[in-house]
Amino acid sequence: MPLITAIALGALAPYLAILAFLVTGILRLRHGQSLLRPTVSVVVAARNEAKNLPGCLDALLAQTYAPSLTEIIVVDDRSTDGTAAVLNSYERSHQNLRSIRIHGTQSAATSPKKHALSQGITSAQGDLIFITDADCAPSSDWLASMVSFFDKNVGVVIGPAPLVGSHGFLSRLLALDSLAAMLVAAGAAGWNIGATCTGRNLAYRKNVYEEVGGFERIQHSLSGDDDLFLQLVKRRTSWRVTFALTSKAVVNSPVPTSFLSFLQQRRRHVSASKFYSKGSQAIYLLFNLANLTLFVFIAYSISEPALLPSAALLFGLKLGFDLSALFLIARSINVAKSLFLFPGWEIFFILTQTLISPLGLVGKIKWKV
To answer: Does pTM surpass 0.90?
Structure first.
């Protein structure tokens, strides 16, 4: 066996092992069965979101969960557009909606978004805190579905947050890419591991937030109000984490409107990984190096016809496992049709992971200017 083939085979083994671990974790996830109906507070941090807020607020006000048990808190973080006017209009007609306005600036060492969220969470009256973004549209059963996953031992529930948008090629690739992120979050949660999540769809007990000291221990990162907070909870408490893998818990979020906005978003998300545990960083590095090694082998085999059969076999195994894993996620939230661009996404994924994601580890990252 040629050395390069042996290296590729050696790379495939840990890659498939990690993927199998995630798939098994997904299969371990339970359906939401709790019948308790606690009070909930939805906290939305908004900065210059006048255009998007009406859609988000309309979706939140249309929830099937009892309005008497629900409060909606929007934190207006120094907006300079019509955000305040939109909030004033909604507050006048909806008693369970209120806003908090932040004026001035915080310390340079303080994450603006974490500061905004912390203001909302501190004032929240609900037993459960729900976090989403101002440009998101939760499904009507979002609150009711997520609440059902809070059994007595669960402290954090991660929800599915697929990206949706136009029919452009990049938009569809990004929508599929969001399924891959959900695969990691759901698979790890199935093993009670807090690997990652998104602040577009996240819920936790308020007493869990208080138990870990809020965001105080993770203020050093601009981002991380979601994944770093999740990891903090797992590191400092005995609460379980789970993933609400059901279409009823979906929160749709628009895809970035341009490649530049995608680049900024990806850098912001990746920047938090600098503060992951050494073990988590090692696993992510192993997974991505294995993936890159396989693609290098496949590209090299084009110039070496004798290697093509081996390359085709290894690539076929990789594609089969990748597609099966993504289908498991997509089917659960009724977006399986998004998989038709899967071959193109494979190339997109390796390019973003090796060329774009590392940019999040250098330079200054901003939430919104």
So the answer is: yes
363 — pLDDT class (breaks 50, 70, 90): low
DSSP secondary structure, 230-281, as one string: HHHHHHH---EEEE--SGGG-EEEEPPSSHHHHHHHHHHHHHGGGGS-HHHH
Three-state secondary structure call for residue 77? strand
Residues 6+ apart with CB under 8 A from 314: 8, 9, 12, 294, 297, 298
Total Cβ atoms within 10 A of residue 69: 16
Nearest 5°: phi and psi at 261?
-65, -35
Q: What pLDDT, in 10s, does the model give residues 92-122? A: 999 999 999 998 766 656 788 999 999 999 9
Cα dist from 245 to 25, 101, 189, 234, 335, whole Å: 12, 34, 11, 20, 12
Task: State the helix-helix crossing angle for 308-332 and 342-351, rounded to 10 degrees.
Answer: 100
Cβ pair 241, 158 in contact under 8 A: yes
pLDDT in tens, 64-79: 999 999 999 999 999 9
Q: Distance between terminal CA atoms of the chain? A: 55
Predicted pLDDT at 135: 96
Alpha helix stretches (DSSP H) within the chain: 3-28, 53-61, 83-93, 112-123, 142-147, 169-189, 206-211, 227-236, 259-271, 278-301, 308-332, 342-351
- For the chain, the structural domain boundaries read 1-32+167-197+253-369, 33-166+198-252
CATH superfamily of 33-166+198-252: Spore Coat Polysaccharide Biosynthesis Protein SpsA; Chain A (3.90.550.10)
